[in-house]
């Protein structure tokens, strides 16, 4: 078994919850992940992460979204650990290599999205250009709120999976 996973399995509950919160900003998700330990291997960890994520309420999902900075910004609405802030910056780094016009359009799109849906635009941004993200944002603006909440939750699930890998690889 990976030494980081062994360490995670052995942490006191509150410390484990703080580690999981780096991956997903839902307190309920982090608590349940801590309670589900020990994990036999990384596959078991990720399967349980998905199972728990999909069982959460809309409010839990919205809480997780608030732990992300808007695309193009550095600060999230909710407090993030320094490690989670670093991961967010890394995940959005490709999108920052774009034209000023795209950055302006993303900022405007973020505002429109938040006004329409009541939560920030969440996307698995790793490796995506600013233009790709802008296209996805515009395409998703036509969704109904409940459908879009599910799309955003799936994007959050993908982000969580990536961050669990980063947590274990540390």
Could you write a compact summary of the structure shown?
The protein is mainly α. It has helices at 3-10, 13-21, 27-36, 42-55, 58-65, 82-92, 100-117, 130-140, 145-169.
SSE topology string: HHHHHHHHH
Give the count of structural domains: 1
Structural class: mainly alpha
Number of helical segments with 4 or more residues: 9
Q: Describe the biggest sheet?
A: none
Mean pLDDT: 91
The CA-CA distance between the termini, in Å, is: 14 Å
- Report the CATH topology name: UraD-like
Full CATH superfamily name:
Oxo-4-hydroxy-4-carboxy-5-ureidoimidazoline decarboxylase
Low-confidence stretches: none
Relative strand content: under 5%
Q: Under the CATH scheme, which class?
A: Mainly Alpha
Could you characterize what this model shows?
The structure is a single chain. The protein has 170 residues and is mainly α. It has a single domain, classed as Oxo-4-hydroxy-4-carboxy-5-ureidoimidazoline decarboxylase (UraD-like), CATH 1.10.3330. Helix 5 packs across helix 9. It starts with a helix and ends with a helix. The model has no long low-confidence stretch (mean pLDDT 91).
